[in-house]
Write a structure and sequence with these properties.
The structure is a homodimer.
Chain A: H1 6-19, H2 28-35, H3 39-51, E1 55-57, E2 64-66, H4 75-82, H5 100-125, H6 129-140
Antiparallel strand pairs in A: 1-2
Helix pairs in contact in A: 1-3, 1-4, 2-3, 4-5
The first copy, chain A, binds a DNA duplex through helix 3.
Chain lengths: ~140, ~140
DNA sequence: TTTGTTGTAACATTTTATATTACAACCAGA
DNA sequence: TCTGGTTGTAATATAAAATGTTACAACAAA
């Protein structure tokens, strides 16, 4: 079981928007060339990031830009923008209500699964886009 | 995106093994009746839990039992027994190496994604089967 | 030896992710 | 105002993963 590549792709897109600001127009086709997926995937992702208020997209003209400062965008914001699920775990649908265990697993497990999800989200919140940009800049120019 | 129901099912199985100890023989068919999935799913899961050293299964005779004390089994142990993935996130396969971003996203993101995974696992480690049993017993008999 | 079981393979079905094609709506510049 | 490149989105296709099912050999106890 794995998460889809949506979060990695969205982060890639945001890093590219920052990196190419003022240098290249970041159209869906241009971004698709960097991420190496179909441009429609990019457009859909851009749409989700826009809906979440993280970027602006220029319809017709083309290109996108950050709508917030990178230090105000966390992995959590990005994750929630591109993954719609509320529940991290898929619970088996119909435990037997006639069984004392089947009747109660849900109540017993739910809060634990939520706390796991919460731990994950807390960690995501602590990672900002800015810190990723810093890391990338350091790789592009170690002396900076 | 969601995790499969494997962890919830495995926990259900373990709780049932504890609950019915000495009362019913916990065969795959019996357990399937409580979880409400196909017995083969149960057998496969039992096999994984056995391989991880969490339970014993009696071939031929039928039935299963815990191989460790419930306080020594964490959700993390169960999770690792039934989910084989090493990486939580699926990274997009071929970022463009000719692009400064494409060339570096992997290095930049990987450690962050790992820390998210790590946060999740830490939380899983802190939850023992015993605590779930306690919760369930309290639901079955609030005065206990 | 009979009965009920585990372990496992093979296959079917369902769901989700990802890719692709197509096209209307849009916008800037010629 | 026309043109060219673009976004937004629907529809469809393909691929991959999860889940369900059937079948049967190996096994163990009565």
């Amino acid at each position: 079981m794995q998460f889809s590549s949506r979060l990695p792709i969205a982060v890639h897109i945001l890093l590219a928007i920052v990196e190419f600001e003022g240098k290249n127009k970041t159209t869906s086709v241009f971004l698709a060339g960097s991420v190496n997926v179909n441009p429609v995937i990019i457009r859909n992702t851009l749409g989700q990031l826009k809906a979440a208020g993280l970027i602006t997209v220029k319809a017709g003209e083309g290109g996108s830009a950050l709508a917030k400062k990178p230090e105000d965008i966390s992995l959590m914001d990005i994750f929630e923008a591109v993954e719609k699920e509320e529940e991290l775990f898929h619970f088996h649908e119909n435990p037997n209500p006639e069984c004392p265990v089947g009747r109660n697993v849900h109540a017993v497990l739910d809060k634990r699964l939520l706390s796991i999800q919460e731990a994950m989200k807390q960690e995501m919140k602590s990672i900002t886009l800015q810190s990723l940009i810093d890391d990338m800049n350091h790789m592009l120019d170690p002396n900076e």
